[in-house]
Protein: Acyl-coenzyme A thioesterase THEM4
Organism: Rarispira pelagica
Amino acid sequence: MKRINNPYTGLEGYNCFGCSPHNMQGLRMDFFLEGDTVVCKWKPQTYFEGYSGVLHGGIQATLLDEAASWVLFTVLGTSGSTTELSVHYKKPVMLTNQEITIKARVEKTDKNLVYIKAELIDSNGTVCTKADITYFSVPEHIARRRFAYPGKEAFFAKKEI
Ligand SMILES: CCCCCCCCCCCC(=O)SCCNC(=O)CCNC(=O)[C@H](O)C(C)(C)COP(=O)(O)OP(=O)(O)OC[C@H]1O[C@@H](n2cnc3c(N)ncnc32)[C@H](O)[C@@H]1OP(=O)(O)O
């Protein structure tokens, strides 16, 4: 597994709820790449509770969506926006998990639409949640201008933007 750097950390005002390490109310996710799959290891905190002892479903949806966006950044070499998110909650994700794993990969692309499959796996290896996520991707030069996209190589280099 290859560690993915977060090249946005040096960007002024960067406060993404999913991935900014500066957002203390956020999920502060970080990522690895395993083949063409983005992987995140994440520890659920009790303040993300829904039903007693269970990780809130909205937080799960955000974890899955955020991982999908990092597939665009690091596998497809561009950026975009979520246009659809369908989540299947199969099993509760307990807050007692020391670590859960979120995985996301491209299922297919169709012109500028990117269809991503993502899943959330608990520490016993049970796939608790699955998501189908559609992203509206933009060409890289627009991503650079509109979304401060630094280029794929920046995610694997030490340098920050
Ligand atoms: C800086 C640090 C960062 C740090 C890192 C930050 C990571 C953040 C990750 C979080 C990700 C998010 O939450 S993103 C935030 C949530 N998402 C959004 O806010 C997106 C809101 N939606 C939009 O802005 C807009 O709908 C766009 C830009 C996506 C598309 O608008 P548009 O350009 O007007 O295009 P539109 O006409 O709607 O669609 C173009 C064509 O694509 C088709 N199309 C569009 N969506 C779909 C779809 N889901 N399934 C089928 N087809 C679709 C349309 O039918 C149409 O076909 P035809 O008629 O041409 O045939």
Observations:
- The chain has two helices and seven strands.
- The two ends are 23 Å apart (CA to CA).
- The CA atoms of residues 18 and 27 lie 5 Å apart.
- Residues 8, 11, 14, 16, 18-19, 65-66, 69, 81-84, 113, 134, 136, 147-148 surround dodecyl-COA (CB under 6 Å).
